[in-house]
Amino acid sequence: MKKIVSVLIVLVLVLSLTACGGSKKNVINVYNWGQYISDGSDGYIDVNDAFEKATGIHVNYMTFDSNESMYTKLKTGGSSYDVIIPSDYMIARLIDEGLLLPLDFENIPNYKYIDDAFKNAEHDPDNVYSVPYTWGTVGVIYNSAYVDEADVGSWDLLWNEKYSGKILMFDNPRDSFAIAESLLGFSQNTRDPDELRKAADKLIEQKPLVQGYVMDQIFDKMERGEAWIAPYYAGDYLLMAQENEDLRFFFPKEGFNFFIDAMCIPSSCANKDGAEAYINFLCDPEICGENLDYLGYSATETEAKQYMDPETAASEIAYPPEEILSRGEVFQYLDAESTQLMDSLWLEVKTHSTH
Amino acid sequence: MKTFNRVFTVIVFIFLYIPMIVLAVASFNAGRDIAVWKGFTFGQYGALFRDGVLLPLLLNSVIIAVISSLAATVLGTMAALGIRAMSPRMRRVTMAVTNIPMTNPEIVTGVSLALLFAFLGQVMKINNVMGFATLLIAHITFNLPYVILSVMPKLGQMDPNLRDAAMDLGCTPLQAFFKVIIHEIMPGIISGALMAFTMSLDDFVISYFVYGPGFVTLPVEIYNYTKKPLQPKIYALFTLLFMVILLMMVLMNLLQAKDEKRLRRARGVFGEKEEAKT
Does residue A153 belong to any structural domain of this protein? Predict the structure, then answer.
């Protein structure tokens, strides 16, 4: 027993010593979406490891599952993060609440590689707080073996009774409502309770045709031909198309969601130089190209395309031309009241009996 | 009635274990979808052991579970001895207070610990208080009641004269504890420690609120896997984890059975000697 106690004490001491030793080194804490960086699996680059080797700065890499949980963690306090990678509407909210630090672009020379299309975005109009990391779009994936090309082009394909039981839908309120709102001609950022009500009715109207409300199961259901039509992210379509050649993709004519995830430095930052070095490293075209090759999302730098799989880089789906992209709409932050209304309407859609 | 009982028991076991079986089967499936069998493979396990991200996270979880359960065991045993020595009324009150954290919703414990740590961090001017230490403290906190709860009954079963006898024979109170009492209550200590270990290993809710940039456990990290489809090697990881827990539970039960046997035999021997004397 005495032995166990003494071993325990020694263990705790050693561990607390190493913990202290760690904090004195040059360290940055990075807070990003789970599985949102190339981590060395499947033969791709290990970005954090490459950064440590290049700069000697150690990366503590932590992940979150949604913009909202990241926000809660920042607000609770008690932990300091040096780099965070939230999405557009959350960046606007963080700026609004003074939770971000202005970036020193002298330390981020690679910012010059970022394409103009992603600068001056609505959430950061003067390019002060954020450096774009990736971007992407939502569109419709369909199986050309079963779906008539004549029916394709609009969100109404998801309401087409010919394909009843073969249609999938997003299993989250924001993306599903955005589709119904686009089809009805509303903004995807509407806060009007009447418009939200109408969108919910539109989703209820669609429900009898829907095979299931899913997220990641879309991959297998579409690849196997179990479902024929599904709205999803363009980057994920490219992965699915590798498994099933019949799968096609289009950008609905009514408009679609377009998102930018960007790197920011929160006000709790303890190592701003290290944080800026990290952001700069991720903007290096070669790193950016190899990282995004693994992620499957779109790169914010034209320069990075030469380091990517040439087929992806040339894809008009990953990199749609300007006239299509202009139809895209970026999600804005919805106030608590609208979010709550949307959540309760979504519950109504999900629990609505189809009989 | 008997057949009804049997059928009912079988149904209960099916509901309890079907999810585990599905998970284990999925971990040997060559395909990615759990609904379609594409052939048997150990490939997911191979991928798991080559993985540079999941294994260090598992190690983090094990480190926290081992240290927190050991610490909780030492503290909990000490607490149980103290509580045992109280008057019956105080004992009841103290046990009630001790049991509250177990019945308290985990989310409440998690949020309140997070707020406490954030507050202490501000008072002590530590910018980055969340991390290994806060996780460890939180895990010891929720492990403590389980240890106390499994040591207390063993102390109750113990013959109170044993301690006096040991001290009559020249032991100091500390020696009496290490030479006599601890052997009597060992089964309680071990089952308390194992319980604490398993509780700590799979804790998500409380850990989620108190982890920090320096240190994170496996359940918390897996929860954040939302940007890409779940990889089947995670099924393999959870199957292994389940097997380890299962093994520990079997071990615990075997130890308990052995202990009961020993107790019975000891009593038997004692009884015979008394008979011989008379």
Answer: yes
Q: What range defines the domain where residue A242 resides? A: 136-255+329-351
Q: Please count the other Cβ atoms lying within 10 Å of the Cβ belonging to residue A354.
A: 8
Domain shared by A251 and A151, yes or no: yes
Residues contacting residue A167 through CB under 8 Å, at least 6 positions apart: A158, A160, A206, A209, A210, A211, A227, A228, A229, A230
Please indicate whether, in this complex, the C-beta atoms of B223 and A39 are within 8 angstroms of each other: no
Query: The complex's ipTM?
Result: 0.70
- The domain total for chain A is 2
A213 and A141 share one domain: yes
pLDDT tens digit sequence for A163-218: 999 999 998 888 999 999 999 999 999 999 999 999 999 999 999 999 999 877 78
Question: Is B101's Cβ below 8 Å from some Cβ in A?
Answer: no
Which residues, 6+ apart, have CB-to-CB distance to A50 below 8 Å?
A281, A287
Checking if the pLDDT of B223 tops 90, the result is no
Alpha helices in chain B (DSSP H): 2-27, 43-50, 54-84, 88-103, 106-123, 132-157, 161-168, 173-176, 182-201, 205-210, 218-223, 233-277
Reported as a single tens digit per residue, the pLDDT across B131-177 is 899 999 999 999 999 999 999 999 988 888 888 899 999 889 889 99
Specify whether A203 is located in the same domain as A301.
no
Tens of pLDDT, residue by residue over B92-121, are 999 999 888 888 899 999 999 999 998 888
Residues in A closer than 8 angstroms to B205, CB to CB, are none
Per the CB < 8 Å rule, is B229 touching A79? Answer: no
The span from the CA of B153 to the CA of B143, in Å, is 17
Residue indicated by tokens 């309401």: A159
Reply yes or no on whether the pLDDT at A50 is more than 90: yes
Decide if B34 contacts B26 (C-beta within 8 A).
Answer: yes
Following DSSP, what letter does each residue of B75-122 receive, concatenated?
Answer: HHHHHHHHHHTS-HHHHHHHHHHHHHHHHS-HHHHHHHHHHHHHHHHH
B128 touching chain A per CB within 8 A: yes
Q: In this complex, is the C-beta atom of B178 within 8 Å of any C-beta atom belonging to chain A? A: yes
Instruction: Quote the CA–CA distance of A221 and A217 in Å, as a whole number.
Output: 6
Q: What does R_g of chain A's alpha carbons equal in angstroms?
A: 23
Q: Which CATH architecture has domain B56-265?
A: Orthogonal Bundle (1.10)
Q: Which of A54-63, B132-141, B234-243, B251-260 has the lowest mean pLDDT?
A: B251-260
Q: Are A198 and A342 in contact (CB under 8 A)?
A: no
Long-range residue pairs from B96-104, CB within 8 A, at least 24 positions apart, any chain? B98/B144, B98/B145, B98/B148, B98/B149, B99/B145, B99/B149, B101/B141, B101/B142, B101/B144, B101/B145, B102/B142, B102/B145, B102/B146, B102/B149
- Domain spans of chain B? 1-41, 56-265
**Pairs across A and B, CB distance < 8 A:** 107
